[in-house]
Amino acid sequence: MNIVIAIDSFKGSISSIEAGNTVREAILARYPQEQVQVFPLADGGEGTVDALTQGLGGSIVPVKVTGPLGKPVKSRYGYIPVLEAAVIEMADASGLTLVPVEKRNPLYTTTYGLGELILTAIDNGCRHFIIGIGGSATNDAGLGMLTALGYKFYQEDGSPCDVYGKNLQDVVRIDTTSCHPLLKECQFEIACDVTNPLCGPQGCSAIYGPQKGATPEIIQRMDKDIAAFADLAEKATGIKGDKLPGAGAAGGLGFAFYTFLQGTLTPGIELVLKSIKIKQALETADILITGEGRMDGQTAMGKAPVGIAQLAKKANPQCRTIGLCGCATHDAEPVNKHGIDAYFPILHAPMSVEEAMEAHITKQNLTQTIQQIMNLLHW
Asked: Which CATH number describes the domain made up of 48-269?
């Protein structure tokens, strides 16, 4: 059989490639004649840098940048030579987890560090960017990031604006001519899984502001400030992006990438599947093996295992898809209608969550489960 393996990470336990290689080794130990290929898998959110970098032979580049509160933080990006690309998770530079709960307030957070991360990658030769923008602590419509990239934002008195969410109200003029000269050579592909516009009842301030510490008063103020900023941006760039589905992602970063950097916004799993170039392998596959740590009702709503299962059905309707998971909730069954033909939790005995998530236990359980499945397929 021709078998393709692409398993999302078992978060807190093993990575995507570790899971895939464990299943591959288990299959070949019992059925060495099989043709088995392993691909990394992620959905564009947390874990995407590690999955693509490790799976595609890249390297992690550590970078110190300005964090969301204006203080230095340790960040990173993945460089993947085969794609000639930098892979970035904005949360590594401007994420909500970098802000203590008591300090969360989108008036006082910035995406400046994300801009610094992009600049470092540009200076190191990168021109293709794959950027996941989930998990932001910010609501600055990209003001900080764009400032770091060389765009100029001026106040009424002609002085430059600061880079925090509160400073959006100060912007009266935008100069796009001073940005980094190599930006015009760069391609930005943005993993974006929300469709919110920039402003209004479904905009970034109203929908995502509360989780970032915004009060009703702050939400009202920031929605007004961002709308005014969007009008200025349209005049400066000639591009209207405030109504674009996904413009409101990550506190308006979707808008900033589209309007100022001509970035494309794509569902995360689609962007990852395109990047790993798995479609050709699926066209001749007999079996696809995918999975994740927890399979539940959310899995059927576009998470990585279903995304790749659906791609497999389109590429090759005869390909059967098997899902492996650490656990499966009662509402996981809809995945059977979305490309996963059968799924199997890998636990074989009662144990604590902590024990089940130990890396060697997860690998042992994956090995035992897939070997039993393979025995059935060869019966």
From this structure: 3.90.1510.10
